[in-house]
Amino acid sequence: MPHAEDSPSAHPVEARPCEALHGRIAAPGDKSISHRTLILGGLTVGETAVEGLLEGEDVLATAQAMRAYGAQVERVGAGSWRIHGCGVGGLHEPEDVLDMGNAGTGLRLMMGLAAGYGFTSFFTGDASLRRRPMGRVARPLERMGATIVSRSRDRAPLAITGAVPPVAIDYAVPVPSAQVKSAVLLAGLHAPGATTIVEREATRDHSERMLRAFGAQVGVEAVDGATRITLQGQPELRPTAIRVPGDPSSAAFPLVAAACLPGSQVTITGVGMNPMRIGLIETLIEMGADIAVQDPRDEGGELVADLFVRGGRLRGVEVPAHRAPSMIDEYPVLSVAAACAQGHTVMTGLAELRIKESDRLAVMAAGLAANGVAVEELEDGMIVTGRGGRPAGGATIATHLDHRIAMSFLVLGLLAEQPVTIDDIAPVATSFPGFLDLMSGLGARFGA
Ligand code: S3P
To answer: Whose CA is nearest to atom 4 of ligand 1?
Structure first.
């Protein structure tokens, strides 16, 4: 997978200031739900028909990994896929190292899956993924009986020899992480008895919803302000048709661009509105954005709606720290909205941002400052002070193999006085392959 640090052939792109955006677009499929669909579909017996699968590099890496484990995973048309699984416990040993590319979710979920099989699975990824901490997933999986050998500080490449069967555990997740929760649940599928997770801060619940849709018994209860999730192990998963909603974390980019450009009128259709994913929409509305949520509907257990946004002037707000899990991937682009808003936007409770595809607090703070924005980096957050109009812009930004950094600074270029250049467009293909075309269709202007 070509990325700036992995290859000399990086492709810089410049985003040019534009006036207003207009049009109607569909957000690409949800990345979190796409990974889970491929994995759970591979654990059923029979055919899982999927529509709207995200065809980004991260998800394609998970598709390839599931094939290596013996599932049949076929693309039959744009976003349309068919999975023939092997049943829980029916996967076989991959012949080679599984390269998860840039995908943290892919690797952590696959680690959970691998923990239920008595053979050894080997995993690696790109330079960004190989820097990310995997101990948060390795520790509970070891408690379940898996043996994990990794590079120093729990980093990939790593190997997992699973336990047969794994031990069902009762696990209080120490960090708010849907990836950790989901990895333990996937291992728990193979464990006799009930695997229980306690979350002090609720995180996205796509795994729980989808496990139920595939026929597993998953109980969720509130206990002393925490959420207790219980999975009954060794279920027979049955295939079900999955329609993947649009990704709110991808919709975030056109949403912020349109909200900050007075005169814009943009509709983004079919956006996932899972309550654990809508923190950005709530925050933008608090900042004064004119966003209408239209035609809310249930699609296969997930809430979906169309978003109609009109551009205008935003004001700074204090974002409550407890909102972080519901918009964890959206802070980079929120900080761009904050750069255009009038006054201070205070974002805290964001220590997790330092261990995403890049250290997003450091990279955003440095990049905003280079573009003339007043920003203070905090240990667990940042304060951005906007002047209620276009920031200066004009800088070139290193994207550090991070798709959301790349797209955030391209959005900044549309909103600034001077163009903003990113050093490499390649990382965008991990989550939002058609980004440039889709934004150009709304009136955005990009150059090489
Ligand atoms: C994801 C969970 C989040 C998020 C990531 C996708 C998931 O990570 O940042 O992009 O699909 O479970 P954490 O679980 O590490 O917070």
So the answer is: 329
Res. 12: pLDDT tops 70: yes
The rounded distance, in Å, linking the Cα atoms of 294 and 306 is: 5
Q: Which residues are catalytic?
A: 329
Domain boundaries, the chain: 4-29+246-447, 31-232
For 4-29+246-447, CATH number out of 3.10.450.50, 1.10.540.10, 3.65.10.10, 3.90.1300.10 equals 3.65.10.10
Which residue, by CA, sits nearest to atom 16 of ligand 1?
Answer: 177
The pTM of the whole model exceeds 0.85: yes
Q: Please list every protein residue whose CB sits less than 6 Å from any atom of ligand 1.
A: 32, 105, 177-179, 182, 204, 328-329, 352
**If you write DSSP's letter for every residue of 301-331 in order, what string do you get?**
TEEEEEEEEE----B--EEPGGGGGGSGGGH
Q: H or E element: which one contains 206?
A: helix 206-213
Task: Tell me the pLDDT of the chain averaged across its residues.
Answer: 97
- Please state, in angstroms and rounded to a whole number, the distance separating the CA atoms of residues 359 and 131: 11
pLDDT tens-digit readout, 252-287: 999 999 999 999 999 999 999 999 999 999 999 999
Whether the predicted pLDDT of 1 surpasses 60: no
| Best probe residue, ligand 1, of 36, 179, 277, 360 (max atoms within 8 Å of C-beta) | 179
Q: Which residues on adjacent β-strands are paired with residue 161?
A: 120, 147
Report CA(182)–ligand 1 centroid distance (Å).
10
Q: Which residue reads 């923190």 in tokens?
A: 279
Residue of the nearest CA to atom 10 in ligand 1? 329
386 φ/ψ angles, rounded to the nearest 5 degrees:
-95, 165
